[in-house]
Amino acid sequence: MSVDIIATPRSTAWLADANPLAKLGAGMVLTIVLLISVDWVSATVALVLECALLPLAGLSAGLLLKRGWPILLAAIVGGYSTALLAPKTGEILLSLGPVVFTTGSMESGVAIALRGLAIALPGVIVLASTDPTDLADALAQKLRLPHRFVLGALAAMRLVGLLVTEWQTLGMARRARGVGGGKGFFRGIKAQLGQAMALLVQAVRRATRLATTMEAKGFGAGPRTWARESTYSRRDLWVASGGLVMAAVSVTAAVVLGTWNPVFG
Amino acid sequence: MTIQRSRGSTPARISAKGWGWQHSGRHTRAVHDLDLEIEPGERVLLLGPSGAGKSTLLHALAGVLGDDEDANESGQLLIDGRPVAESRGRSGLMQQDPDSQVVLSRIGDDVAFGAENLSVPREEIWRRVIAALESVGLDLPLDHPSSSLSGGQKQRLGLAGMLAMRPGLLLLDEPTANLDPAGVVEVRDAVRRSLDESGATLVVVEHRVSVWLDVVDRIVVLAPARLGEPGGVLFDGPPAQVMAQSRELLAAAGIWVPGYVPHVRPRTLLPHAMINPDDAGAHLLLEAASLAVSRTKGRKRHPVVPAAVVPSVLVKAGQALSVTGPNGAGKSTLALTLGGLLAPVAGRLTALPELARGAGPAPLKWRGRDLISRIGTVFQEPEHQFVAHSVREELLFAPRILGHGGDSVDELLTRLRLEHLADANPFTLSGGEKRRLSVATVLAASPQVLILDEPTFGQDANTWAELASMLTELLDAGTAVVSVTHDAAFTAVLGGSRLVLGDSVEGAGPLAAQPQELAQPQPAQKAVQR
Q1: With an 8 Å Cβ cutoff, is A2 touching chain B?
Q2: Residue A177 touches chain B, beta carbons under 8 Å
Q3: Which of A31, A107, A180, B210 could cross-link with A191 by S-S, CB 3.0 to 4.6 Å?
Q4: Which residues of chain B lie closer than 8 angstroms to A223, CB-CB?
């Protein structure tokens, strides 16, 4: 009956079986390198390489568009604003009153848009191919984060999934009481706020009951064992070195083509 | 009875010596002066009027009351001669709400969770997980998502999680109150099977005695803990003996003792449509044809699979319509659609002029104030519909929207025995009180059509009888009552017609057998699922 946003069947993609920490590490290396420089070559190379990896994460272009369109939109908006505001160097391409695009400003805009995508994509790939339970296991067993915190967060995430259905039900339950029938913008806002409060109350009550369940199952006192062992395998070596290689190739290409432009330079 | 103990640890012994507990911020004790000895391996049904502290005792035994620093404990509560706080892992607790029973998103991991917390070695955990799932009859892969289970399956999953901890004591707090009849039997049988295997001690709290009568070998009735009165145990002994001694008292306290049917005000008026069921035109209020319902909206390229498709629904003034069928057949979704809260996926839902009174034929399009005075929907979970800070404000809410005064509020308060709670916060009420309030808040708008989703789930016999009496009165006054229910006795009291969703033929017998039945149910309008 309830829609659980994170309990989708475990992904069967190649990357899904890698240790979440290896994936996070690889993604972070690539992201940091891309944050250092503002040029279009490194961003383009990284983006192309990332797109080549999509099948390994079980993502098709269609699925990516469906899930990641807000990121694409944000990148395009970011690029447009940059092109609008960047120094107007080079030839004028378009001039409509205050709206002036030159080759130089367009170049900056495209670079920013590509960079935004190249930085966001590793996150999408890691999220799509990582099961939250696996991530929690890795964080607690390999990174030695406190298990109370990690498992508490994991259980809470499951509740967030239930809240989606709860919101829908609350909306109907409150309409059945006549809430939100009034006209006007502020009445609408008031009704939404009331519903949000009701959702909060339900979330707290449910969390309290869940905490009781966890406590009754002996959670939180003393040491525990782990039914699932978080391990590293040869695959994780591939993932980690893959991240390093992608970062290195992007930087090298930019340096060779003379566009490397570190922000602190 | 042979007890095979290969799969369990030793059964636990419970002893309470003058034990009492006062929650912080409360004036009275939840439990006081309790002296009780439960032998290892005994199976005890714990009964008592609401407020006797049954849940408090279970929570204390489960060791989940401990953190309350301002609470006041007296006497001793021991498991195997040791204080409860030192008995971690000796007991397992099952609560009422199936959704709060599940911790992790895959069933294998969820069962393993308790054993992990007890530091059981990994190989041993998985042996126990597989044995526990088998013991409760959940024949599903270990990575099956726990969110897709039914209520009964979730409770059995919770039970499996307990069994993997090898507890000497199972504590069940109204484990079947939120389940449909099939789920009730499922959970009860799983508990019995696992007890036969482990030999563990059982303490179960439940309103419906008949469910557990064959499983338990002892019944303990607790006294209500009122100021100045002795608390503790009222009756104690083998089931047959205790039932004979305390039947009257328990029935008066709203416990469902076996064979007890609470008195309900019978219907007095015989609507014309009842005498001649084919007289369809008389007082028809709401009509649906080829109605397909779903909670999710369809899009052009991805049409939804409807939860149910119903050939025809006729809602008539002064007539009851009961919607029955197995879980997942789309009963609640149909109720929401009829109530003008969900858009139909396909087909037609029309409010006739007598109901619409100028507001248009589609209930979904009505404004809130127009809706509540025409169709009132009572949700399964009363808390979802609470919008105010006190019981009185709740009841005044609808009259204010409609612009009349709240003259009827005091009358409603008295009728539903809520007058002493007029200033209380709705969330602090008991289960029965919440149910009565949620019905009253909808009735305060005097709708012509009343739709109720599982109104009798988990209710004690007293609330049940009050609810049924109120509905027969409304029916006689000309209100149409549509109820989604698994409760055959309830359907029988209301009479009227029946709509069966899904392929079940459930409950055809008892309906006709009841003397209160006014008319034979018209042949079930068979509906197709999916």
Answers
A1: yes
A2: yes
A3: A180
A4: 119
Contacts of A222 in chain B (CB under 8 A): 119
Q: How close does chain A come to B232, measured CA to CA in Å?
A: 25
> What are the residue boundaries of the structural domains of chain A, listed by start?
14-131+234-256, 143-216
Residue listed under structure tokens 């695959």: A235
Question: By the CB < 8 Å criterion, does A9 face chain B?
Answer: yes
B95 vs A1, A213, A223: nearest CB: A213
For residues B366 and B463, membership in a common domain is answered with yes
Residues of chain B predicted below pLDDT 70: 1-8, 66-69, 225-230, 269-282, 298-301, 503-530
3-state secondary structure of B179: coil
DSSP string covering B478-508, please?
A: T-EEEEE---HHHHHHH-SEEEE-TT--TTH
Helix, strand, or coil here: B358? coil
Host H or E run for residue B423: none
Q: For residue B91, which residues of chain A lie inside 8 Å, CB to CB?
A: 216
pLDDT tens by residue, A41-61: 999 999 999 999 988 988 888
- Is residue B243 domain-shared with residue B125, that is, in the same domain? yes
Residues B68, B104, single domain; the answer is: yes
Domain count, chain B: 2
pLDDT, tens digit, for every residue of A179-224?
Answer: 875 666 777 788 888 899 999 999 998 898 899 999 999 898 778 9
Q: What angle do CA B94, B254, A216 make, to 5 degrees?
A: 15
Query: Distance between CA B478 and CA B493 in Å, rounded?
Result: 16
ipTM score of complex: 0.83
Question: Best residue in B55, B67, B68, B117 to probe A by mutation, most A CBs within 10 Å?
Answer: B117
> Domain for residue B527, yes or no?
no
pTM above 0.90, yes or no: no
Per the structure, the complete domain to which residue B332 belongs is given by 272-297+315-374+447-513
User: Does residue B258 form part of some domain?
Assistant: no
